[in-house]
Amino acid sequence: MNGLVRKVLSVKCQVLREKGCSIRIIKEHHIAQARRTARSEAEALGFSSRDVSYIETGVSELASNLFFHTGYGGVLFFIPVSDNDRQGLEIISEDEGPGISDIKLAMTDGYSTRGGLGGGLPGVKRLMDEFEIFSEIGKGTRIITRKWKKSNPTSPPKQNGKFLQKRK
After folding, report:
1. 23-39: per-residue pLDDT in tens?
2. Domains in the chain and their CATH numbers?
3. Quick one: DSSP state of residue 117?
4. In the chain, what is the greatest distance between 2 CA atoms, to the nearest angstrom?
5. How far is Cα 152 from Cα 160, in angstroms, rounded to an integer?
6. What is the signed CA dihedral for 154, 157, 160, 164, rounded to 10 degrees?
């Protein structure tokens, strides 16, 4: 990543940090906390139950990567976003770890550095609507994902925890 891009992203992330919430991933139990935060943020924004699950699963993978691959963790940011008529949730994963030496290889289904199934980052990309990854050896990695609310959610709206029914 060139210096200008890194500087622009740093400024953008600083502004976004002030609008949303964040969680530092240092210990393994923070992965579960990140999942709960993802669920809470997505539900508060009115995502469908299916998309809430997608967001929660993607965040679980990002948090796991921060814990297992960086040596000392990182931070996840949850930022409500809007673009014209769309509303969504942006999730940024940031670390100052060793970096990813071959992003193309890391994004290959079945590739794993830990002996797992190798579905991590490619899975996150499939679950989210937008996915960008920036990494620099010895400086760290930043992954920016976005999930946009669908205009016709698959589950009916709720009022006080009860599903509303259409009158005929």
Report:
1. 999 999 999 999 999 99
2. 3-153 (3.30.565.10)
3. -
4. 63
5. 20
6. -110
